[in-house]
Task: structure prediction
Amino acid sequence: MTLSGKVNARLRDACLDEAHRAGIQLAAGAPASGTLYFLDDENYVEGPEVAKFVLRGSGRAMCRIALGKLAKLETTVEFSTVEPSDCKFTGNVEGYDYNAVSPSYDSAVVDAQFKVRAAGGNRFVEDAMRADRQRVIVNGRGFLCNP
Result:
């Protein structure tokens, strides 16, 4: 992942921390799989296998969502609200996003999907969501379906 534009040290560190939390290994000199652009008029991610995707929200949430796009979470950890059949339960999951101004539901779901992936699953079933002015929390379960 490459960061481009006017990226302050705090935002850079937040993006690196999100990558580490998601289990994504970043290495100097590794082939870039995507670039995160922080520009005055637009923030977006793109890469060789990722079409331009415009990002909304806070820095940490944008980083988490960008990492989800680059890791292709929408295809590797399916999101559902329906109980799957013939799948192995991999554990309960809680995903969250905290932001004093505007917490992101999408970022909380991506957090949960990364946790399901880390537990060896490929489906996240959301059971509940709660939100207040500073955070969004999604609760659900992880499953391994059709290994």
In short: The two ends are 28 Å apart (CA to CA).
